[in-house]
Amino acid sequence: MALVGKSGSGKTTLLKCIYGLEDLHEGDVYIHKERVLGPSYNLIPGHKAMSLVSQDFYVLDNHTVEENIWDKLIGYTTEAKQKRSSQLLKLLELLSLRNTKARFLSSGQKQRVAIARALALIPEVLLLDEPFSNLDKILTDKLFSFIIKEVKRHKTSVILITHVAEEALKYADRIAVLDCGKIIQTGEKWKVFYQPKNVKLAGLLGDYNIIRKEDVEKGDQLKSKTVIRPDKINLKPSKSALKIPVTINHCSYNGKCYELLAETKSGHSLKIYSDKEVQEGQEFRAGLESLLI
Predict the structure, then answer these.
(1) Within a domain: 226
(2) CA–CA distance from 117 to each of 69, 88, 121, 217 (Å)?
(3) CA distances (Å), 205 to each of 4, 78, 95, 113, 193, in order?
(4) Could you list the mean pLDDT of each consecutive 10-residue stretch along the chain, which spans 293 residues?
(5) CATH number of the domain bearing residue 30
(6) Which range marks the domain in which residue 253 is found?
(7) Which of 161, 207, 212, 225 has the maximum number of C-beta atoms within 10 A of its C-beta?
């Protein structure tokens, strides 16, 4: 599950409560039938069945990169430690630094060591607090691919905090949206994305349009306002789609598709995604392929 929300919405605080880094004023957190207690009850905060990878990554500065991983594998044979640490060092592109003490690493390298420590033993619950903010995109994709395989094999639950909607949609199965300390919507990612409860929530997850009755031919089939994503407006619609007469005002390429800025006959602006370039001034009877709200 991905937790999405603006800065200050309560994402990190919620994760700390789950892990046992905060004392709760109300309510309880349980893993199985065991209550998770906060720092007032535990000398070392946190729960043994969980791992937390936070923005404040923790490493042993006076130990080598490999020793940092071995520290999490106490009780395992030397052969098992070597096999697991080599796997993680290769994954996180740290092989050349395996014998370097952590205090000599850059912040990005330390973050990778912290991730390796968290993944040394796959827990029952893995908590990720924007853990890949300093990593490049290819390494992030490689890491998530590894994590997904590992957690499925161990039947581990994962909660990912991110403010990047693309990350939530790409890597999570479910999404929960936080606003001012409250979860305002939760569900399968595509349902939350395409059926947001309100306009504010729609904006948190990406581009959207507000379609009004006066924009659409046979607009009586719509509610007063309908939210729809740009990829659900088709310039070559099916016969059954509701039609919106539009004029293209601008066309630009964003690296993945063409973004069209269009205007309806009633003067409202629409954003449309297209796989082909469209000339400014062209007119279309675009179609709504699905209605969201």
Answers:
(1) yes
(2) 5, 9, 8, 58
(3) 8, 46, 37, 30, 7
(4) 90 92 92 90 84 82 95 93 94 94 90 88 90 81 88 91 88 92 93 91 91 84 82 88 93 94 94 94 88 49
(5) 3.40.50.300
(6) 209-288
(7) 161
Question: How far apart are the C-alpha atoms of 192 and 260, rounded to whole Å?
Answer: 24
The Cα–Cα gap between 221 and 215 comes to 12
Contact 65, 89 (CB under 8 A): yes
DSSP assignment letter at 140? H
Query: Which structure tokens are listed for 129?
Result: 């607090």
Q: Which long-range contacts (CB under 8 A, 24 or more apart) does 216-219 make?
A: 216/242, 216/243, 216/244, 216/288, 217/242, 217/243, 217/244, 217/245, 217/285, 218/242, 218/243
Q: Is residue 293 one of the residues assigned to a domain?
A: no
